From TrEMBL:
This is Helix-turn-helix transcriptional regulator. It comes from Anaerosacchariphilus hominis. Keywords: DNA-binding, Transcription, Transcription regulation. One of its GO terms (molecular function) is DNA-binding transcription factor activity. SUPFAM superfamilies: Homeodomain-like, Regulatory protein AraC. Pfam families: HTH_18.
C-alpha cells in the first residue's frame, strides 16, 4: 500500500498541518511550483532551512530522503499541507497530468539543486495492456472428425476447451488443448483446429482487440501469451465461467463486465509466467458446487464465532469432516490452511475494533482469544508492519 505524509513513517522527515501559512504574519516567502506528470526524477532540492509545501491543484507524491542515495529515497502521497525538516533532499512527482504547489520558506534561505544518479523512477499505477473491444464470442460444440482448415486475422483469439480435447496447428507447430486448458492465437498467426476420430469437444472462442501500453523498458509484451497451452488454473476457470454466464445475462453493463473479466484473464495468464503455476486437478461442476456451498457455511460459522476460541477439531466435528479434508478444502479454495485463515480474520477484526476506539488494546486481544497481549502485538506487527498501539495513533491522528 502507498504511504501518506500523515503516516507515522513520515515523521522522521516532517509533519502535516491543516491551515495555510499566512505570509504576512510569519514573514515567510513563497513561490508557485508548476509541474507536469513524468515518471522519473533526476534532481533533488536541498534546503538548509524548514520548507513547507501547500498543494493548490492536482495530486502529487513527495519523494524525500536524507541523502542522495536513490535506493534510500521514499515516496509519500501528499496528504494535507506538509512541513519538511531542514537538510532533506526532496522533489515532487506529479501524479495527475499537472499540479500547482506553493513552496514556502524563510527569506534567509539557502538551497541547492543536486543531480541524482541514477534517476529515481516513480511507479505510477497505469495499465500495461488494454482490451479495447470484444469482436466475437462463441460456444462451439464439435463432433468426431471436425476439421477447420485454418485462418489468420489481425486480432487475438482465445480458445478455452470446456470438454474433450482440441487439436490445433499454429504456424506449423501442433498443440493439444485438453479439458479446462486454453490457448491464445496472436494477430497474423495462421491456425487450424480439428477433433480426433472418436472424440468430441466443446470450447469457447473469444476474439478481441488488445494493445500493449508501453511506459518503460520493463513492460511485458503479449508474446508471453503465444505459442503455448495454459494448463488448468482455478482462477482462470472461474473467470471464464463468469464470462460465459455474463454473456447471456442481458443485465445492464454486462458488456463492460465481460471486458473486465477478459482483461483479468489475460493479466492472470501474464502473471503466471512470473509466479509459476500450481498443478491443480480439474473438478467436476457438481463437486465444485458442493465444495463452494460447504466452504461458504464454514466461513460463515467462523465469522459468527470469531470472538470465541475456535479449534480445528470443533469445525471438523460440526461439519462432519476429517481434519485432512478440511485442510484440502481450504488449501484449494483459500490458498491457506484453516488455522491461518482464522488468525488472519482475528487480526482483521482487531484492526476494525481499534478503529472503533471502544476498547483498549489489551481488551481487544482478550476478546479475540489471543493467549497474551504480547502474542497479539507480535502477530499484528507481522501482518501490518506496525504495532497495534502505533496503528491506533495513526487512526486517532487522522
Amino acid at each position: 500500500m502507498q504511504l501518506k505524509t500523515s503516516s507515522l513513517e513520515f515523521e522522521r522527515f516532517g509533519s502535516v498541518y491543516d491551515k495555510p501559512v499566512s505570509l504576512e504574519k510569519t514573514g515567510m516567502i513563497c513561490r508557485d511550483w508548476h509541474m507536469i506528470a513524468k515518471r522519473s526524477i533526476n534532481q533533488l532540492y536541498h534546503f538548509d532551512c524548514e520548507v513547507r509545501l501547500e498543494m493548490q491543484s492536482g495530486m502529487a507524491a513527495l519523494v524525500v530522503g536524507e541523502s542522495l542515495d536513490v535506493n534510500k529515497l521514499e515516496a509519500f502521497a501528499i496528504h494535507r499541507y506538509v512541513k519538511l525538516k531542514p537538510g532533506l533532499y526532496f522533489n515532487l512527482v506529479a501524479v495527475t497530468s499537472n499540479i500547482t504547489c506553493k513552496l514556502i520558506t524563510i527569506s534567509d534561505y539557502n538551497y541547492s539543486l543536486d543531480a541524482l544518479t541514477p534517476a529515481y523512477m516513480f511507479r505510477r499505477i497505469l495499465p500495461r495492456i488494454r482490451i479495447s473491444e470484444i469482436l466475437g464470442y462463441y460456444y462451439n460444440i464439435r463432433n468426431s472428425g471436425y476439421v477447420f482448415n485454418g485462418e489468420s486475422h489481425n486480432y487475438f483469439e482465445l480458445t478455452y476447451v470446456d470438454r474433450g480435447q482440441l487439436l490445433t496447428d499454429v504456424e506449423g507447430t501442433c498443440y493439444t488443448i485438453k479439458e479446462k486448458e486454453l490457448m491464445i492465437y496472436g494477430p497474423g498467426q495462421f491456425h487450424t483446429q480439428n477433433i480426433a476420430k472418436g472424440d468430441s469437444c466443446s470450447y469457447v472462442t473469444i476474439i478481441f482487440d488488445m494493445e500493449t501500453v508501453v511506459y518503460d523498458v520493463e513492460s511485458s509484451h503479449y508474446e508471453l501469451l503465444l505459442n503455448k497451452v495454459f494448463t488448468y488454473d482455478k482462477k482462470i476457470y472461474t473467470l471464464i465461467k463468469a464470462f460465459v454466464s455474463e454473456s447471456t445475462s442481458e443485465i445492464p453493463y454486462m458488456n463492460s463486465l465481460m471486458l473486465c473479466l477478459l482483461q483479468e484473464t489475460v493479466i492472470r495468464l501474464l502473471q503466471s509466467e512470473f509466479i509459476g503455476r500450481k498443478s491443480e486437478k480439474p473438478v467436476t461442476t457438481a463437486r465444485q458446487h458442493y465444495e463452494d456451498e460447504l466452504l461458504e457455511r464454514i466461513l460463515a460459522y467462523i465469522d459468527e464465532t470469531i470472538y470465541e476460541p475456535i479449534t480445528i477439531a470443533e469445525i471438523c466435528q460440526k461439519f462432519s469432516m476429517s481434519r485432512s479434508s478440511l485442510q484440502i478444502l481450504f488449501k484449494e479454495n483459500m490458498d491457506m490452511p484453516p488455522k491461518k485463515y482464522i488468525n488472519e480474520l482475528k487480526l482483521e477484526k482487531s484492526r476494525q475494533m481499534i478503529c472503533e476506539n471502544r476498547y483498549t488494546i489489551s481488551e481487544i486481544a482478550l476478546m479475540l482469544g489471543f493467549n497474551s497481549i504480547h502474542y497479539f502485538s507480535r502477530a499484528f506487527t507481522q501482518k501490518y508492519n506496525m504495532a497495534p498501539s502505533e496503528y491506533a495513533k495513526t487512526i486517532y491522528k487522522t
